[in-house]
Design a protein that fits this description.
205 residues; binds zinc ion; alpha+beta; 2 domains; Mago nashi protein; elongated; four-stranded mixed sheet; single chain
């Protein structure tokens, strides 16, 4: 899905380009495929430079300025790195948790090579708990956050994705095992009993 305007939901959205434009960029701007932001590169009260422009409502925004209320979904997917790769396998090898602003939490289990859902569970929690979690997730994407990475060759790897309401995504990848990112997510999921079971397995001994 392409980028949509967070204000009016139009998909009549074009990028904003700064600096002195090349001839090609000027032509694109004349066709209406690009907005020229000018040569002045400035930074108003720490916010980012607007990088998208809505031709329908003239809204300008920057993905870096999005806050908790601009998140449409947070998805945490992880998969095992061990075992043989068998495209025919229907064994659970990939798992995903999706956290929505309305308090809906979805769990899915997939085989390694397809999106065929083998198992799923949906629970609902208080919205405030999701807001707190989103706050922590946004913090992980801040450039000044010190991220401790866990590196294991044969365990599980993860991908954490924020989807914003303009359809743009931010991703972080890593290995599962108590690093800053995966711990933030798993600590949250473990506060939800049904999801804790999914995460840790029922028959742990
Ligand atoms: Zn708009």
């Amino acid at each position: 899905m392409g980028c949509i305007c967070p204000k009016c939901k139009s998909n009549n959205v074009i990028p904003i380009m700064y600096g002195y434009p090349a001839l090609e960029a000027m032509e694109e701007a004349e066709k209406g495929n690009l907005k020229l932001g000018g040569c002045m590169i400035y930074d108003i009260d720490g916010g980012g430079m607007a990088d998208r422009y809505c031709k329908d409502c003239e809204n300008e925004w920057c993905v870096d300025d999005f806050l908790v209320e601009d998140i449409a979904k947070v998805r945490f997917r992880y998969w095992s790195n061990w075992g043989c790769y068998n495209p025919e396998s229907i064994k659970e090898d990939q798992w995903a948790f999706e956290v929505f602003p309305d308090g809906t939490i979805k769990y899915f289990a997939y085989p390694r090579a397809s999106r065929r859902v083998l198992d799923k569970e949906i629970v609902h929690i208080e919205k405030d708990r999701v807001i707190d979690f989103y706050q922590n997730v946004i913090w992980l994407y801040r450039p000044w956050t010190e991220i401790i990475k866990c590196e294991v060759c044969d365990g599980c790897s993860y991908e954490l994705t924020i989807t914003y309401k303009d359809n743009r995504k931010k991703k972080i990848h890593g290995d599962l095992g108590g690093g800053t990112v995966d711990k933030t997510v798993t600590d949250f999921l473990c506060t939800i009993p049904k999801m804790k079971i999914r995460l840790e397995g029922e028959d742990d001994d």
